[in-house]
Amino acid sequence: MKTEILAPTITKLTVEAPLVARKRKAGNFVIVRATPNGERIPLTIVDSDPDKGTIVIIVQAIGKTTHIITEMMEGEFLMDVVGPLGEPTPVSDFGTVVCIGGGVGTAVIYPIAKALKEAGNRVVSIIGARNRDLVILEDEMAAVSDELIVTTDDGSHGKKGFVTDALQEVITGQGKPDAVYAIGPLPMMRAVANVTREPEIRTWVSLNPIMMDGTGMCGACRVTVGNEMKFACVDGPEFDAHEVNFDELIARNRTYAGPEQEAFSAWKNRTETTDCKHL
Amino acid sequence: MSGNGQQKKEADKKSPDAKAPKRQKVIALKPKERMKIPRHLPNEQDPMERITNFCEVSNGFNIDKAIAEANRCLECNDPVCMKACPVNVDIPAFIQLLYQGDYAGAIRKIRESNYLPAICGRVCPQENLCENSCIVGKKLEPLAIGKMERFLADYEANNGTFTPPPVAAPKGQKVAVVGSGPGGLTVAAELAQMGYGVTIFEALHEAGGVLKYGIPEFRLPKKIVDEEVERVKALGVKIETNVIIGRTLTIDELLGEMGYGAVYIGTGAGSPRFLNIPGENLSGVYSASELLTRINLMKAYKFPEFDTPMKIGRKVVVLGGGDVAMDAVRTSKRLGPEKALLLYRRSREEMPARLEEVHHAEEEGIEFHFLTNPLAIHGDENGWVKAIECQKMRLGEPDEKGRRRPIPIEGSNFTIETDTVVVAIGQSPNPIVQQTTPGLETTKWGTIVVDESGATSRPGIYAGGDISRGGATVIQAVADGKSASRSIDAYLTKIRSEKAGSEKSASKQSAT
Known about the structure:
Chain A has 279 residues and is α/β, with parallel strands linked by helices. Chain A is 31% helix and 30% strand.
């Protein structure tokens, strides 16, 4: 495994997983377990190299597992990696497509933008972050986009404002795009869906519900799409943004917030007292 | 050949016992004396104690009890128990060996028919199978066949006396098994003993399938599953975890470039069904699969030592009446809520769950609410469950399966306040293999179509257990695995002889 720090708390990992690399398509994800007692978490595959047998994942340190993964060193091993999971992104030549990445969601939109570009689309990308330090993959996104707009909440880099503001400007200035792909925090994806609903712009979002096995066996990732129950791991993770019940998903994703915080605090306190790497 | 067969058939007609020599009787007691011994009961953890832990409920038999129980066997000439067993374990023979103190011989005898005795001795519904047909049971309680089987398996494990059965010379052909549940493990063990190179592909990070993620620790300790898996590996079987057939590799790749001669699909029925009632996606509503997988496979009951959490509130309501519902409600109870309830829309008599588990659940203080049908789940302002609305039912005419149909009673709606709901109304077949294997015929329920030998619509592909039955038992998966192994062997033997034939004719041609 190779690691590269992209931004504070955000790490890019190149992981050896030959069978996954061979099959992976844009939009697929893997389930990862970092340690012997670890939980299973889903992570989108950002890139893959079938010849070298490697996949790239980008992880933001939020809870215990993601902290452990982002602090891993080159040459270390993840306990388990399984995939590729989920349905691949529907990629075809739509015409003009706007690809929106919010925060670490940029890591997920990048392979989709790349695939859409390769399919012949005119790709306008919008990537947003809270501040300059948290903007990731700017060069990579520029390389696969005909136009790249960067936004930051505090205006420390690119345009000041949200990705939805930039999207609105694109729609007003350039006319209605043929499709929009938006990936980021749930409130951001909900806001994008609200912008594109009335002008009836076809919009896809990639959902990140709680997941365990990733093969349709636990039902933890169930989401309501068009009044139907879907399992994001096998039916998604990408869905029509205008059909998704975001409010329900935001509530469901809070289910384990308490225990997750507890596990993280316990882990953090333990390492701070026993880990002497800062000495 | 055909002449012999004819003769044998005639002999069978004359005397049903002619094919097998009469069993020698070894038990010293007279049948009348045997019939005076009451059935022995294993020590069990006290219900109030066991709801505070995940340790096994039953401690099983010790040597004395196991032998004393063996004394009760009537050594029937026509052992109906053996016929009632889906894999026809030679029950009287293993009981005799147990009686004689030949524990190693006894467990070997079981393993000739069933390679997973430590598992089946615990989770097999013996009361509906072997023990239900036991002749002693006509007058007294039947023999505790399952507990004796478990004793022999545990005795062997505790004393480290396991030796793998002989493995035939390599046949030079490979078989891929998809899924490491009871069916997959059985197929692998059977075919490995015949000399095939077997690899099991498992989607999860640990082997065992439903034995690992589904059945709780307190009924089937995971150490027991691991030991049984090791015994399968001792035959030379390879197990590849973290490989999802249909995603990481496909069935066609296994049969094509990877060189497997045949594939057995034992992927089970793990996809949870929901009721389609309002509020099912509220926080605090879980499928039984999610609850059980978190607890059993991911060990959430040891959180935060293990990272995976489980959140159970002050009151848990489990919906359903099968074995999974029973496992879910008893698991919930052990996570420390004030109350654990089970709602079932028919009455106790119609419950499909094993009686032993219903009894255990009642001992543990589970509240059963029969003839109660959930209509809607209501949430609070944060989207968390706060109540479940139900309706009372009454029983009507029997349905096609003979179970009396529940009929709603008008105006009987009522509400139960709760913060946790677990839906345990059944599982559907796992869909990934069917979706990614062209030409594999399935039913409208998503199960794979098989004939009585386990063959699917595609040559070289076999299936069994829950993936073809929709929802059955561990022992049924074992039985399916055994019959599929025989057909896989026949299929591969035919391919070997065809290949040998064509090579022969080719060498003849090149010689001339």
